[in-house]
From TrEMBL:
The chain crosses the membrane at residues 222-243, 263-281, 296-315, 335-354. InterPro entries: Neur_chan_lig-bd_sf. Keywords: Membrane, Transmembrane, Transmembrane helix. The lineage of its organism: Bacteria, Bacillati, Actinomycetota, Actinomycetes, Kitasatosporales. GO terms for molecular function: extracellular ligand-gated monoatomic ion channel activity. The keyword Zinc does not apply. One of its GO terms (cellular component) is membrane. It comes from the Bacteria. This is Uncharacterized protein.
Length: 356
């Protein structure tokens, strides 16, 4: 019986051709793997190529608050500021900027290295610019701020505020004011300019810390000093309408002379109100609109002008033969009604300012 021939592999492992193929493949792998390794590692490390910004903890202690002057848009403060940074190079206090300070004076830094961190303490004293809204004086409340700006942009430096350690001196008693709140707030400030750093494409952003203090007035004495002349002018004006001459034997000329005297008193009242309004503007100045003091002055001026108009009408009535008795009766009732309207208007203005 004839036997079938046995088929062997085309390229047996022991053949020279197979050996050559294996040698080529091994060489290629040896050359590819070292080249691919650094490329893959560089690709993986690209997202983490930019270092995280350095963070420093910041806190503050306000030791004094004084010279609070809304008319000049200023207040003065003395405070301690400290930072805790991972190393001395990251310390921002030597280059920190006070955004709303006039000419800050700082003490020599007190640097302490502890627990692998660097503590830097500095005392700051200055007057600070502040926008004030005094339209509701003397019921106005204010939030004043000391604004600190980091020396580097947010890509390189960030603040972490520590409100637990931030405090104010419990003995702070600003004249005419009461301190009602205090805290530190983180914020950012964006500038459209890059300050010459061409690596920044959309401007630059800097970290800020706002040291906020809430104030309210504690002494209404100034309010009464500014408004008592108004009330006196109104009471004197009303009294001139309530002096009765109906039961006196007076000639018409004498009655007309009384009306002229009333006009003189009202003119004097107008002068007092206008002068007092100018003095009040030096004490309570607002760029946001009319203040409560302005509205009270304008209401008083309106009352006195109506009184002048009523007096002129009464004079024309009696000078053309009208009844002086009727004129006096109308004047008396008008004076009481005008006084009631004046009190109601002023009360409403004060109540609105107190509740706002």
């Amino acid at each position: 019986m004839a036997m079938e021939p046995r088929h062997e592999a085309a390229f047996p492992l022991s053949s020279p051709i197979a050996a050559v193929i294996l040698l080529v493949l091994s060489t290629a792998c040896a050359l590819w793997l070292p080249a691919a390794g650094p490329a893959a590692a560089a690709t993986a490390a690209a997202p983490a190529g930019r270092a995280a910004p350095v963070r420093c903890e910041l806190s503050a202690y306000v030791s004094d608050l004084y010279d609070i002057d809304p008319a000049k848009g200023r207040f003065s403060a003395r405070l301690w500021i400290w930072t805790i940074c991972p190393d001395r190079r990251a310390d921002p206090l030597p280059k920190i900027s006070f955004a709303n300070a006039d000419d800050p004076g700082t003490s020599e830094p007190n640097i302490i290295e502890q627990d692998g961190h660097v503590l830097d303490q500095v005392r700051v004293q200055s007057s600070f610019r502040q926008a004030w809204d005094v339209r509701d004086f003397p019921f106005d409340h204010h939030r004043i701020e000391v604004i600190l700006t980091a020396p580097d942009d947010t890509d390189h430096f960030r603040f972490t505020v520590n409100n637990a350690d931030a405090q104010t001196n419990p003995e702070i008693r600003p004249q005419g004011w009461r301190l009602t709140g205090f805290r530190l707030v983180s914020a950012t400030k964006h500038y459209t300019t890059t300050y010459g750093d061409h690596s920044l494409k959309n401007g630059s952003t800097y970290d800020q810390v706002h040291i906020r203090m809430d104030l309210e007035r504690s002494d209404p004495t100034i309010f009464w000093k500014l408004t008592i002349p108004l009330y006196l002018a109104v009471l004197i004006a009303v009294s001139t309408f309530l002096v009765s001459t109906r039961h006196e034997e007076l000639e018409t000329t004498a009655r007309l002379e009384g009306i002229h005297n009333r006009l003189g008193v009202l003119g004097g009242g107008l002068f007092v109100v206008v002068l007092n309004m100018q003095q009040a503007s030096d004490v309570v100045t607002s760029a946001d609109g009319l203040t409560l003091i302005d509205r009270l002055h304008l209401t008083t001026l309106a009352f006195l002008l109506v009184a002048v108009a009523g007096t002129v009408l009464a004079w024309r009535w009696t000078s053309h033969g009208g009844s002086t008795t009727l004129a006096e009766r109308i004047s008396h009732r008008g004076a009481w009604c005008g006084l009631a309207a004046y009190v109601a208007a002023c009360g409403a203005l004060v109540l609105l300012a107190a509740c706002r």
